[in-house]
């Protein structure tokens, strides 16, 4: 069974974080949508006013062992702990509609599927759309 240690991310983790973002995007068949750079991760996550809070899960031995060992549950529980400690009233997860294993896990852990419960759709404005919107 894999050993998991979850810790606060450090600026030096940005290269690995970007690699993991790309690996996840490839798994989700969305690699072409990864536009962020290591420098942007550094600025957004470790600058004067960090935009996000990042945790790193160190999994030993290396990833590739069979799924179903509770690693995802441990990570989500840690995110909930950090969110509560920071005074958050909620945290949100995004999952593609075909990733039924993730959907089932989130529901089993107590997450509410807002698509089912409230009919929410998630939208994003990318850089070009934002530029057009503001006339730049």
Automatic annotation (TrEMBL):
Keywords from the named record: Acyltransferase, Transferase
InterPro entries, A to Z: Acyl_CoA_acyltransferase (IPR016181), Diverse_Substrate_AcTransf (IPR051016), GNAT_dom (IPR000182)
Entry keyword Transferase: yes
GO molecular function ontology, one term from the record: N-acetyltransferase activity
Keyword Cytoplasm included in the entry's annotation: no
Domain (N-acetyltransferase) ranges: 4-135
Family indicated by similarity: Belongs to the acetyltransferase family.
Record's protein name: Spermidine/spermine N1-acetyltransferase family member 2
Species annotation: Saimiri boliviensis boliviensis (Bolivian squirrel monkey)
């Amino acid at each position: 069974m894999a050993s998991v240690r979850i810790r606060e991310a450090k600026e030096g983790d940005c290269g690995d974080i970007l690699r993991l973002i790309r690996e996840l995007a490839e798994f989700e068949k969305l690699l072409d949508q990864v536009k962020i750079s290591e420098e942007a991760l550094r600025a957004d996550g470790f600058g004067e006013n960090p935009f996000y809070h990042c945790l790193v899960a160190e999994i030993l031995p290396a990833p590739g062992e069979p799924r179903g060992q509770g690693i995802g549950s441990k990570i989500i529980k840690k995110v909930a702990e950090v969110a509560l400690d920071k005074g958050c009233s909620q945290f949100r997860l995004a999952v593609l509609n075909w990733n039924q294993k993730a959907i089932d896990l989130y529901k089993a852990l107590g997450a509410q599927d807002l698509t089912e419960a409230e009919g929410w759709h998630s939208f994003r404005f990318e850089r070009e759309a934002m530029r057009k919107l503001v006339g730049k």
